[in-house]
Amino acid sequence: MFTSIRERLVSKRFLQIRYFSVIRPQEQGIEPPVHQDIFKSGQKFGSFRIGDLTFYSLIENFAKVGDLLSLEKVFNQMKHERRVFIEGNFILAFKAYGKAKKAEKALDLFDKMLVEYQCRPSVRSFNSVMNVVIHQGLFDKALDLFSCVIIQEKRVSPNMLTYNLIIKVLCKLGRIERAIEMFREMPLKKCTPDVFTYCTLMDGLCKEDRLDEAVCLLDEMQVEGCFPTAATFNVLINGLCKKGDLARAAKVVENMFLKGCIPNEVTYNTLIHGLCLKGKLDKAISLLDRMVSNKCIPNDVTYSTIINGLVKQGRVVDGVSMLTSMEKRGHKTNQYIYSTLINGFFREGKPELALKIWLDMISKGLKPNIVLYGTLVDGLCREMKPDKAKDVISEMEKMGCKPNAFVYSSLMKGYFNTGNTDKALDVWKEVELNVGVRNEVCYSVVIHGLCSNGKLKEAVTVWENMLSKGYKPDVIAYTSITHGLCNNGFVEEGLKLFNQMMSCGCKPDVVTYNILLTALCKNGCVSRAIDLLNCMLDNGCDPDMATCNIFLKALKEEGNDGSEFLEELVIRLDKQKSVVGACNIIVVMLQKYLVPKASTWEIVIQQVCKPKKIRAAIDRCWNDVYVVERRCPVPTIH
Question: Which residue ranges traverse the bilayer (predicted)?
């Protein structure tokens, strides 16, 4: 029977089909399985011929496995035989190019659709190629494509998805006003915004710190009959939490409940993260319990956020308790959590507990990664045990985990801090051999270490080498070399380097300024130091206690207690709206037993205290006093 069917097929001049295996040709070392004579004599039915569907099937299969070479050969063969292309062929090809991160190829194919392949692109093809370009992060190209095809040539009429994609691009580029224009244009083009449109625009507004507009958009969305989802509310909650406006975030959650939208794990994680940022760890833990009671399962992100917050507040032991609670609830710990706890114990000066956590992690079968090894190396070096840290690096290499430049930087720092410059420089040479690339951090560590150990000449050599290799010095490198120059009496050279630093766009910090201020005051150039202080304030860098002490010492030598100088500094900082800076100067004055004037107190108190809160506090106090008087009447004295 098989033979007879085969003969009948041949007699009717049907195509002789060869079986095609979908394999990558490069893996077999042969040409792709598309023969030039395939389907040569297919019978025509209207615009289609027998065998077209097989071509389409080949396109689908090659696109699915990412065999782009074979895919292109099929397209060429079809074009050569003047086969009919359908839009679905191109959409499959666009997706394949997208997976391979070849957006240029997708754009090129889109341009050829009509001219070379006689297939008119619709909005589906346009959206598909736009999606490929956006996913590859080529936002400017996506805008150019939209402008060319939609606005100028009007080849395609945009639909809702088109607008969603372009609004997303504009928000990514920070062009929020243009995104709003596109959003307002949608109804004119008979495109109704959906939940995704609103979410994208609200997220863009939140990132631009335009939270009021984002909240108004939520109200508008509901008026227009587009009902928000949990994702919509989460966008707003995230924006408000990042700004620190937890009270308003809580109101959004209430609104969420009123709309019948149940908070999910993203909602809870966002709120917990916001509470941790504000240092309200106890409330974050309470919210975790509420999350569990509402049958919303916490994930690794939830626990990681709380543990990180506890460690930052110096509550590493509580972080370990949270880790135990996490494990009891059946959650697996990860390297990030252990890294956070180990780092926290080292920073608290408890290396034995850090090592205990490390051993606990190993006993549970969790394999250390480069972050964990780096944390352990850095912690041991902080404890002035660089040799032990070196042993950890050796173990790390045996386990097949290659140290990076940051791990070596910690080790060099450890040797420099213990005064062992030679060993630090040996590691410096090792970085070049093992890692192959020295980054800016490595150079900064070496320059700082050499300057701190009085080796200015060697530090300058490394500095010049850094510049010759095209590396851009960071603030630590600039500050270190400036410190070295000033300590060796080269103050003018230090100031020149400071000006170079400013011109290169590297913003000096308070440490940089203090080094130069100290050098100028030591040389008796107090007026120049004051000029530099003015420059410091103009650049938005607040003075600290060290800055104040530098000037107080210099003024004391001239018989001035410095109180007037500090008073003026408070006024200057107040004018610049730097409340924290002004408060810090007041603290310095009190520590030095320099009593601020009443007018100075008034300036700071008005900035720190909010009138509504003061009024509420006063009312509460009066209320408490009244209640006490009612309960315990004052006895009359006869």
Answer: none
Q: Where are the domains of the chain?
A: 1-84
44 membership: H or E segment, kind and range: strand 44-45
The Cα-based distances of 22 to 171, 375, 517, 572 in angstroms read 41, 47, 72, 74
- State the distance between the two ends of the chain, measured CA to CA, in whole angstroms: 130
Q: Where are the beta strands (DSSP E) in 62-167?
A: none
604: left (phi over 0), alpha (psi -120 to 50) or beta: alpha
DSSP state, 263? Answer: P
Residues 404-425 have pLDDT tens digits of: 889 999 999 999 999 999 999 9
Q: Which residue has the tokens 């993203």?
A: 266
Q: Directed axis angle between helix 335-347 and helix 351-363, to 10°?
A: 160
Residue 488 or 49, more confident: 488
CA-closest candidate to residue 336, choices 377, 364, 368 = 368
Q: What span, in angstroms and rounded, lies between the C-alpha atoms of 287 and 289?
A: 5
Instruction: Convert the pLDDT of each residue in 338-376 to its tens digit.
Output: 999 999 999 999 999 999 999 999 998 889 999 999 999
626: amino acid identity, one letter: Y
For residue 63, give the H/E element and its range.
helix 52-65
In whole angstroms, how far apart are CA 468 and each of 265, 433, 444, 463, 601?
51, 19, 15, 9, 53
Taking the C-alpha atoms of residue 239 and residue 236, their distance in angstroms, rounded to an integer, is: 5
Asked whether the beta carbons of 431 and 395 are under 8 A apart, the reply is no
Positive or negative: CA dihedral 293, 299, 304, 309? negative
- The 10 Å CB-count burial string (b at 16+, else e) for 617-626 is eeeeeeeeee
Residue 272 per-residue DSSP state: H
Quote the pTM value.
0.69
Neighbours of 80 (CB within 10 A): 9
